[in-house]
Design goal:
This protein is of the alpha/beta class. It folds into two domains: 285 residues, Zn peptidases (Aminopeptidase), CATH 3.40.630; 151 residues, Glucose Oxidase, domain 1. The chain is built from 13 helices and 16 strands. The chain has an eight-stranded mixed β-sheet with strand order 1-10-12-11-13-16-14-15. It is elongated.
């Protein structure tokens, strides 16, 4: 039945689209897999090292992106200034008795006092348990440990992440309301290993700021067992982070002007910054080189786009979306018709999701059979991405590349997010897929009616 359905879809596609469309797509995929340009660019970007906004690594990444896109055949390449935070991670230590635990500060955390904090640890499973213990006065002067795992039953791991991320974001703020002196979370990962995962936290509307950190999943499992045996034993927690205020960085933007409707803009993008624990290969070096590589495939082909193709490498998605918000503000009077983001890793792509109306989505779904030979089958209405989501043009179709998610949170925001964790073929299939959807939507004018 499955093979019959696929055959039917392919038959339908060949009767809707020209034979040349299949040839164009085949050329995109062939060229991407043979040349592996995106993968080579990713190696250069990762060689810079971590690229946290405000850091020297982020500055070098901007220079690299500017130089690289200037060497391509864009009509213009330019920098867009962005004000970003400059937070610096210092030394980190957690000990339960004499046993060390793998820990890292959450992004934006204040430092512990000199010498660290030594206090008892109270494990809570969720915010409901936090409130119950807090109202009894049992969290005063304690380190709160949120042991809330990403749920394994979700087929798409981003759903598990969405369920669990509130403990990273709000955990310290809520624990401080009950007099806790620090907060720790179980790392947001579906794998048990000894690499802690960082990410942003908030102090919004908080009267008393307390440090926030993350334990590796292995350390969280071990600590949970020990707390049942020795609930009165104390932990030493030392997080020596520092907020250095704000500084200027840049979005890197490149345009390839359209032949017929140059005022209509199709954006491809990823974020240039990464967390400071690793090279940010999947998050989001992959998205940057996906976007650059897709543009290069189109420029190297015989395709002449009707609309302007713009690549935007945003700065500071991880720490507040400053780059995306600045881009949206600076281009609010421009006419965006499409914006596709890649910020879900460099794994094998399964399709695209779009934030658009149902009629437009059905038009896009007509292209689905053309992607089946390359393993893409998901064309869903499930959102786009944090960066392109800031674009203020109501007529724009917002989209996101959707790679396979099963391994993404093994490396997300952790020291394991390195170049060696990216498979060249999987990455390049993503690049070609983005080039293909842009070509098809532009050629067949698959956009919302303009006001």
């Amino acid at each position: 039945m499955r093979s019959l359905l696929l055959s039917l879809l392919v038959f339908i596609s060949t009767n809707i689209f020209a034979q040349s469309d299949e040839e164009v797509l085949r050329d995109f995929y062939t060229h991407a897999l043979e040349e592996q340009q995106s993968y080579r660019w990713l190696g250069e970007l990762c060689a810079i090292g971590p690229r946290l906004a405000g850091s020297e690594g982020a500055t070098e990444a901007v220079k690299w992106a500017m130089k690289t896109m200037e060497s391509m055949n864009f009509d213009t390449v330019y920098l867009q200034p962005v004000e970003v935070p400059h937070w610096v991670r210092g030394e980190e230590e957690a000990r339960f008795g004499r046993f060390p635990l793998s820990v890292t500060a959450l992004g934006g955390s204040i430092s512990t006092p000199e010498g660290g904090i030594t206090a008892q640890v109270v494990e809570v499973s969720d915010f409901s348990m936090l409130d119950s213990l807090g109202e009894l006065g049992l969290l005063e002067g304690k380190i709160v440990f949120y042991n809330y795992p990403m749920k394994q039953h979700y087929i798409k791991t981003f759903h598990a992440y969405s369920d669990a991320v509130k403990y990273r974001w709000m955990g310290a703020a809520k624990a401080s309301e009950y007099g806790a002196v620090a907060s720790l979370i179980r790392s947001l990962s579906t794998r048990i290993d000894d690499f802690p995962h960082t990410g942003t936290m908030t102090y919004r509307d908080v009267k008393t700021k307390i440090p926030g950190g993350a334990l590796s999943t292995m350390a969280a499992e071990w600590l949970s067992v020990q707390l049942k045996r020795q609930p009165d034993k104390k932990m030493l927690l030392r997080l020596e982070s520092e907020d250095k205020g704000r500084t200027t960085s840049y979005n890197v933007i490149a345009d390839l002007y359209g032949s017929t409707y140059p005022e209509q803009i199709m954006v491809l993008g990823g974020h240039l910054d990464s967390w400071d624990l690793a090279e940010g290969a999947h998050d989001d070096g992959a998205g940057c080189v996906h976007s650059m590589g897709a543009a290069q495939l189109i420029m190297d082909s015989d395709v002449a786009l009707k609309r302007t193709l713009r690549v935007v490498l945003y700065m500071n998605e991880e720490f507040g979306l400053d780059g995306a918000r600045t881009y949206a503000q600076m281009t609010h009077d421009q006419r965006h018709v499409l914006a596709i983001e890649s910020d879900a890793g460099g794994y094998i792509p399964r399709g695209f999701s779009f934030d658009t109306d149902s009629i437009t989505l059905e038009k896009i779904r007509r292209f689905q059979p053309l992607f089946l030979p390359y393993g893409l089958f998901e064309f869903t209405n499930q959102g786009s991405g944090a960066d392109v989501g800031q674009i203020q043009d109501a007529n724009a179709i917002l989209g996101g590349l959707r790679p396979e998610s099963q391994r993404y949170f093994d490396v997300h925001h952790a020291a394991t997010d390195v170049y060696a964790a990216v498979n060249a073929r999987e990455l390049e299939i993503g690049t070609a897929s983005i080039a293909a959807i842009v070509y098809l939507m532009d050629f067949y004018d698959t956009f919302k009616p303009q006001d």
